[in-house]
Protein 1
Amino acid sequence: MRPFDYQRAADTDDALIALADRPDAVYLAGGTNLVDHLKLGIIAPNLVVDISRLDLEQVSELDDHGLRIGAMVRNSDLAAHPLVRANYPMLSRALLSGASGQLRNAATTGGNLLQRTRCVYFQDASTPCNKREPGTGCSALEGFTRNHAILGASSSCIATHPSDMAVAMAALDAEVIVLTENGERRIPVVDLHRLPGEEPNRDTVLNHGDLIVAVELPAPGRGRSTYRKIRDRASYAFALVSVAARLDLDEAGRIREAAIALGGVAHKPWRATRAEEVLQGAEPNRESFTRAAEAELESAQPLPGNAFKVPMARGAIISVLTELAGRSGSSEGADDDG
Ligand code: SF4
């Protein structure tokens, strides 16, 4: 590991100033991802600015009954918060499905959003990787692709975003509050992360030094919601496919609104807008759920090593929607949000 300077930020202004003229400086929050990267030689900053003691640890209800979550709120505290459990069970489930208890105790809300892909080649500094070293190539294209993207990938990078929390926040229409050198900026979670395109080294739309200070959730939506994660083992594994979904039926039993986001399938939490459009006003039955899933996955471009994700995602979408519609004969896993 290359030596670096360490500085503890006294407040958010101090943090912004610390990174302003230091292009090789990074923020340190919970450290659950960054410290691994330092040890593995994936990054070699000359300054680490510790923001973990900033006064950003509050969860507070907003006037419109939404929720403001400070960027330093720990994942385990957020999952257990009474307002999250009562009003946003999808988010609580997503948080509890991620990592391990120890990691959730340390990981922060802001850091969870900014965690980087677990592509094995990205984490192996001896292999070519366009995300780690632009222009060197993508080792995954001819390699191990089980965990890689089927939607929105490019010839430069097929990595997936690893966060469960961010998938639920994408389905919840959450917004990220960011302090920049030009003032405050609000970014919908669905727009925070980028597709790889020709610049897979850029995970998000944030600029160097931008500081996430909070995430705001709108007032809870109507209907039932849940988060389901499919992975290779029961705990401490990233999603092969995950589905965050909310389904609201009208008085006639038709679908008034559906909100769906997918994890494990793209370089960012994937909001399933095509599926949502198909479901608007439809009967909540297997036929419409299948049409919705197929519309969303029509543009999938899997590789031989991850082609299984297409039927897996289709099945997961159909199964979750069926559960939320109460047509499975079981409500296990689904929660009433409203
Ligand atoms: Fe690197 Fe992306 Fe290719 Fe993985 S998929 S090796 S992160 S460029």
Protein 2
Amino acid sequence: MSALDLDETHDPARTSWVDVDERSDFPIQNLPFAIFSIDGRTPRIGVAVGGRIVDMRALAEAGHLDDSIDRSVLCSSSLNAMMSVTRPRRRALRRRLSDLLRNGGDPVLREMPGALCDTRDAKLHLPAVVGDYVDFYSSLEHASNLGRLFRPQGEPLLPNWRWIPIGYHGRSASIVPSGTDIRRPCGQRKPPDADAPIFGPSARLDIELELGFFAGPGNELGASIPIDRAREHIFGCVLVNDWSARDIQAWEYQPLGPFLGKSFATTISPWVVTLEALEPFRVPGPTQTPPPLSYLAQREPENYAIALAVDLSDARMRERGMASATISRTSFAAMYWSQAQQLAHASSNGAAVAAGDLFASGTVSGSLDGTQGSLIELTENGTRPLHLPDGGERRFLEDGDEVTLRGRCERAGYRSIGFGCARGTVLPALPQSAARGDAYGELAQER
Ligand code: CA
């Protein structure tokens, strides 16, 4: 096992002249990227430190960044071009940013106050134009729990699961940034005692707590990404909520897998935490039995120690000013299939991966009570409701529920960093006529 690949930007003693709260997710050791705008102006690339955003375009135009990354990349309105930059150049940029922001570093940024803004004044957008979106199914506990619920008579794990990082292609056009409201989907479902399916609003709307990665430079069509080089092809990570309509999913998923039960909305956190920032938290994953085939055999630790949590509040709790309830706490470190294995597998047939493609992990679940990343697991398919602090019960999501995912890396000897959050509030389903499409006109008029 080789040592971690660390440099001065990971030094826990390094501090910024920007005021950073001790509990902030964004100390100088993190430096995540997002796309932000102020007052409706053209979106641009920003880097977070504490509660402030560094305007990368302003820095680039002032000539304060290394010329090894083309200025048009730094002045873009999405991160796709930045994600396609090679890892050594991305590292050089990180070192430069860290030096501009550290106490005792290059003072030029301090002398251009217009290059920093307050996060509260900014609107955060999707970080990249997501060309392709894949969702894996890489937690052994989640796959086993769902197998038991969906196929109570059979083996929980299908025979291929321990050999293949199972995944499916999702809908990239339905990916939304944190803060976007989520409309309860309508769809076809078959109540257990009915002879025929019905169409209507999902009655079993759920969440899936996941971590996703944005692809970096990618590969040519016909080539593949070897597992030993997978990390060079990963730009960074975000929190992902793969909203799921369990009743639609249960009726439609065989034989081709998830479709409309998943494709109506996927929320991601806006700040992309780079793989360089995550390096101190890289850890070995669980032992894999049987050993994976050689193209999936990893020689280095490829998991990340990230504590994840899900908070839920209903409309009544928010009206009363009550804090949200944490309904799940789990760890990403125990995921069976790593991101490196996912990427090596996804490209093993020569499929092209492009910068800005999003790969989500699958629901992150542990084996203990309260460590599962979905309501269907936490409530045992709705049979054991969760109790909310205002006296309410939850089996599945109700209209008005607000769900917030959080993630934070902690390891002795290193400065903790975090992901911010991925939040969404459930809106009631559209009236049936509107959902069927005859209200296209009405919706257009609303806009
Ligand atoms: Ca999922």
Protein 3
Amino acid sequence: MKLQITIATSEQEFDRIAAWRIIGELLNNPKSVIGLSTGQTTQNMHAIVSDIYKLYPFDVSSVTLFGVDEVTNVSREYDGACYTMLRKQLIDTLGIRPENFIMPPTLSDDFEKECRLFQDELEKIGGVDLQILGVGTNGHLGFNQPGTPFESETWLSEMDEVLEARIRKETHTPSGKKLRGLTLGIKNIMHARKILLVAKGSSKAEIVKKMLEGTVTANVPASVLQLHLNCEFLLDSEAASLLTGNI
Ligand code: GLP
């Protein structure tokens, strides 16, 4: 099966295409359920969706938005918590009601229960119409690090060391306290009806090559997307620079 790959010629074009995939989904299906991702890659596209919405408001009252993952054991109000990032970048501008923004909590005595609740809530509303995903330089999807089984369901994962160290420093979390990532599992991600994987910049070129032209393996979680029947890979020319076309 041929993979659906879109290569934008500039970062601006990349951000615009990604933003319009989200707006298109919102306009086509006013009851859509859309999974968002945080990070450098998605920031501008959220800003463009917000700008377009401010200029030309449309009905988003029945849309449900959620984040694919969340940091745990930090305050939800911390600027690096996915909840706060998404609220600031998109949710508040669109005026999404709290009941239509599904996020697991960052603090809990029972994260296994929170994982189940998060997953159940998404299933109850009929599953995911569009899932936006970034990819880590090690191939992680959400917080599913290399080695995560493809049949994994919503769970509490280790974070990559660099991100964990950054969050620990920013939140002044003592070294004894674990920071983890609550994330949809690979199986849940693969159940989305449509997926948009976004990767930009030269730092992503190597992993993009492995994801698209390498073997499908749990060592590169994002490679599983080669098996999804409705996944678009949106890249900029830098992220696509190592592709040979031998897929
Ligand atoms: C983080 C998030 C992922 C995100 C990824 C890519 O670890 N948990 O959901 O997709 O990093 O981030 P960036 O776009 O900053 O490279």
